[in-house]
Amino acid sequence: MAQVQIMSVIGSAVPASLRELGLLACWYLVRDGEPISGPLTSLPAAQALSQQVAGARFQV
To answer: In this predicted model, what pLDDT tens digit does every residue of 16-46 receive, in sequence order?
Structure first.
């Protein structure tokens, strides 16, 4: 089973809409190299969502 990972992007890789807000970095959740979340504006938000996704996979 693929593990969910957190990927950060900086600078010009940040979506323009976030750069316009002054953000120079954002985070995505990825599985098998494919994004499974939209850009998140903080690492704690990415970590929290990662925990939710991991917990959901193991619930019956």
So the answer is: 999 999 999 999 999 998 999 999 999 999 9
3-state secondary structure of 57: helix
Domain ranges of the chain: 2-53
Torsion sign across C-alpha atoms 11, 13, 14, 16: positive
Residue 34 exposed, middle or buried by CB count within 10 Å (0-12, 13-18, 19+): exposed
Residues 6+ apart with CB under 8 A from 58: none
Q: How far apart, in whole angstroms, are the C-alpha atoms of residue 54 and residue 12?
A: 30
